[in-house]
Each structure stands twice: as C-alpha cells, then as structure tokens.
Amino acid sequence: MPAAKKKTVKPKANQVGLSEETMMGLYTNLLKTRLLDERFRKLYRQGRFAGTYFSAVGQEATTVGPTYGLRDEDLIAPSHREIGANVTKGVPLDKIAGQIYARVSSPDKGKSHPCHYGWKPKGVITPSSTLAGQTIIGTGCAMGFQIQKKDNVVLAFFGEGSTSRGGWHEALNYAGIYNLPIVYICQNNLWAESVPATLQAGITDFSDRAKAYGFPGITINGNDVFTVHKTAVKAIDRARKGKGPTLIECKTYRWYGHSEIDPADYRSNKELEEWKSKDPVQFAEKTLMSLNLLTKIKREALVEQINQEIDEAISAVDKDEYAEPEEIYNDVYSEQFPVRRVEW
Amino acid sequence: MKKITYIEAITQALDEEMDRDEKVFLIGEDIGIYGGVFKATKGLLDKYGAERVIDSPISEVYIAGGSVGAAMVGLRPVAEIQFADFITPSMDQIIQQMAKLRYRTGGQWTCPMTMRVCCGADIAGGLYHSQINEQWFFSQPGLIVVMPATPYDAKGLLKSAIRGDDPVIYFEHKRLYRWIKDEIPEDDFTVPIGKAAMRKEGSDVTLVSYGLMYHRSMEAAVGLEKEGISAEVIDMRTILPWDREMIFESVKKTSKVVLVQESSKTGGVMAEISASITEEVFDYLDAPVARVCGLDVPAVPFAPPMEHYFLPNAEKIAKAVKNIIEY
Tell me, what's the ipTM? Predict the structure, then answer.
C-alpha cells in the first residue's frame, strides 16, 4: 500500500454501510433521547411540571437518524414530538429541560409549552402547536436559503396526520416548483391522536404524496436508525446540491398516548406489543452487538453517563425560578413598540 | 417634487427598497410577469429577476407562511395578497406564526416582513373584491396594521414597514390607487408607524378615520366648515398600535367625536377606539361618541345602489356630526 494512504485513518466500514463512529453516534443519541424522554414522563407523573408531556418513545429513530451529522446552520422545523432532533442537533439538555419546566432559563422564557423545544444557536425552530405549522415556515426558511444562495438545508418533521392539512400541501407544492433545499420527514406512527392512518388518507404509503409535487418519495422502516440515517443523508445531500426536496416516510409507532393525559385506549394491546418488539433502541443495540461494537458493559457505562447528564440538567432547572409575570410584556414587538402595561 | 398616484408611490417604495437592500424580495400571485393585477409591481421582475420577484402559485397559506420562514433566515419579504377577500386561508399563518413568532420563541426568532393587502370597496367589486376586515388583524397583538390614505403615506409607510423589525399588515385601498395624486419629495423619506396625521385642525368636533374614509371625512369637514361647523380631521394611518395621544388630545379639545370606518360596525376598529375614549377621556366628552360605519351585513354587495348604501360617505358623516353638535 502506498505510504500516503496509510496516513489517512478511515473509519471502519461494515455491513451496515456506516462507520463505527457514525453508528455509535446514532446509538448514543438514540439512547439519550429514550432516557431523557422516559425521565420526563416520570417527572410529569410526579407532578414536577405543569401542562402535559408528549412522549416520543418508540419513534426516536425517525428524528435521531436524519438529524445526526447536520451542521449548526441547517435548520430543524419540528413538531411537538421531536425531542430526538433537539438532542441530536446538540441542544443542551438544560435548555430542553428548561422548556419542559417553563423556567426563566427556558429558551422561550416559559411562554410556549413544555414540548415546544427549540434553540436558535443549534438551528432548532421553536414549534407552534398548529400541525404542519413548521413544515410551512420551514419551507419558507429553505426558500430563504435558496434566495441567499446558502447551501444550508431544512429538515421538516411531521406526523402522517399533518399531511391532510391544506397548508402542508401548499408548502410541498411550492418546494417542488422551486427545488428547495428541504427534506420532509413523515413520522407515520399510525395514529393521529386517536384517528388511525387509514382514516387520514386513502393511501397506505404517505410517501406516495410526493409524486404530486414532482420529487422523490420513499417509505422506510422508521425504527431502524441506520437505515433512516442513510436514507436521510442521501436526501440531504441532494437538497444541499440544489436538486430539490425528498419526502421520507418513516413507519413507526408511539408507545404511549398522544400526551400523558391520553390513555390511548383506541388501539389494541396486540398492536402495541407487536411494535414494542420492534423497539428502535433494542434494534440498534442488537445490530451493534452483532458487529462487536457494543457490549453490555459498554452499554451500562453509557446509560450511567447519560443519566448523570440528565440528572445535572434536571437539578439545574429544578433550582431555577419562573420568570417574573411582567415577562409577559416582552417580545411582543421589537423595542420600537413597547406594549402598554396594565396596573392590576 | 413630482406628483404621483398612490399606486405609483407603492411601486416606487418597493423599487427603492429593493435597490437599497438586497434582502428585500417580493412574493405573490401575478406580481412578476404580469406586474400585479393593479400593476403595483410593474417592471420589478425585469429589474430584479425572478429570485426576488416571485410569481407564487395560488397559495395564500404558503405566501404567508413561506414569507415568515424567509424572514426568519434573514430576508425581508414583502408578500402580496391580491385581494383582502382572499386572505382567509393565510389566517392560520398570520395569526399563529407571523404575529406570535417573536413571542413564542422568547425573541429568538423574529419576523421582519410586510404583507401588502389590496382592499376596499367603492370600485364595484362585489362581495369578494371589496372587503377589508382590518378588525381581524387589529385584535391580534404582535402584528402592526397600517392603512395609508395618501400617496405620500403610501410610500413612507411602506418603507417603514419594510425597514422595521416587526410583521406589518399593510392595507392599500384600491379605490385610492389612481384617484389622488401627491407631491412626493425626490429624496428618501419614511412615515413613522404608530403616528396619526392631523389633516385639519378644528374646534367643534373631531373626525377620526383611515384609508378611503379619511377622504370622505375630509369632504364632510369641508362642507361643514361652510355651515359654520369646525371639524378637526385625524387620519390614523396606523391602526395597530394606534395613536392614542393624538386622538385623546383632540377629543379633549373638541369634546365631540365621530369615528368613521368602512368595514362593518360591530366589533370593528372604531368600537375599540370608542371604548378607549370613554375609558380615558370621558370627562371631556360633551356628547356621546358617534360612529359612522359600513353596515352589519356579510360583505359589500355588488349592485351600485346597495354598495353606496353600505358605505359611509360625506353626507352620512355630516349628518352624524350635526346630530352630536345638537346633543
């Protein structure tokens, strides 16, 4: 082998088609998302924060896979179940926990809602609750990148239910005309709150919708983080090169209710158990172990390390105060237009 | 100084702002190749290219929401809604995204965009080409809402809207597009948002209005002057946030006020202004606050007699003034 080639230490490729570093990176983010999510569920049930909590357990691979490897300048246009995109994009855990606890340190200072995570320094748009909302403005961000000739991309996340909305159609229609640098990730978890996907559309694969917009649509196993990542990387690369959007449908499942106040009694235990056996975290672990990239001991060490990180983030926001009520007047307009204050 | 129309003022403002700042771009239906259905964007496609003068598909949701996104990543979009009557699909984006973006993200993301909305009656537009519905936006904090009445303000307010850091709904009245001309300075100028204009000083009564209704109010005031009634005429120019100080000071001076609005009366902008006058300067009033507004029917009907019956005019305004003068 020529000497020059020896100097380049290439990450080891394997049967999955990804480097060890990438595979472990994906797995670590997947595990972190799972542990953080389960912790938030527990904290909610303990009454430690108000409102409700929208768990993403079961569908983490759909957010971790596409987000891993993005640049800070690339944007995430999320919905309410994108905790994995936040974790993977590198939003600090105390910012994520701050949002949940609605404390003064929260990026939105406690104004929006517990699961509306978003942090501009890492390019995650704070979501609104209107479904497909960020898909529409995210498409606008991609238009903005294109006009400014920046090679940043946008990842827009939504459930299969959101694809029924007119605004979703208008956004994808527009993106198709202008070949915008955006990748649409549909997390088809089979249920839009209580309505099954079969009552959402007359198609089985939601990626079929892409045909109408003139760009590729692909349906994949959304519980295989490696496949999701590889598929997304191709689509992101295509978008970055100015070749236009892709719609990726990830078939997946949420284990718990729409939120913690939803008993999810509209679906069968059989269905749930079937999907639990396709747990994305266990799937990744099995794959890594079969490739000798992960051992039980290594996993335990990782769990311990992540839990410590989570503990630190939670205890930081636990000690944090709520913003003063007068915070209510801030960020309505720019400083040019102060809001009239009321003396109570 | 050169005399130009209201619509020429809009075209000039767009042209000059696009020339000044490459972050300004336009998006809307028929605005590029066709130059706009009223020709407000005529010539701009040739001058600035298709990347900055975007002929959008018929997609009011995307025109609004897409502009929010572009504003988030550093651009200054100027979106056009061809007729105010067709703005309803965009309401989700305007109310939930444009108006709330800064607030709901704790100021991390902002929305410096302008939405030009072609509006108004008295052009035989019928039910679906005559509406304004400014009250929907007026009741949504987070938005700025303006409606110029003169070419000078049309240009100056549009420039302020584009340069400002807040989302602005810019209502342009199509009855005014080619009706009136103003002398406009050659040099760059802006009109401040949030400041009304005192168009005529008077001592007996205050007339408050905006848009086309300012002209109807002025016409009434000129007529009343001949009958010995001295009316003060305020053109609000900005509807949200409105110029409380100027209106209150005028009411303190004249003790009587007539509020004039083209849109339907119930729940309109003037209902809020009336309530605020009674809350804040009640002790100065010498007669009930009067309102002259569009009728409470679903929209402006087409047949000319019905359209004119719907709309306030100088005669109806003068009658309302005389009623409270005699109070």
Answer: 0.96
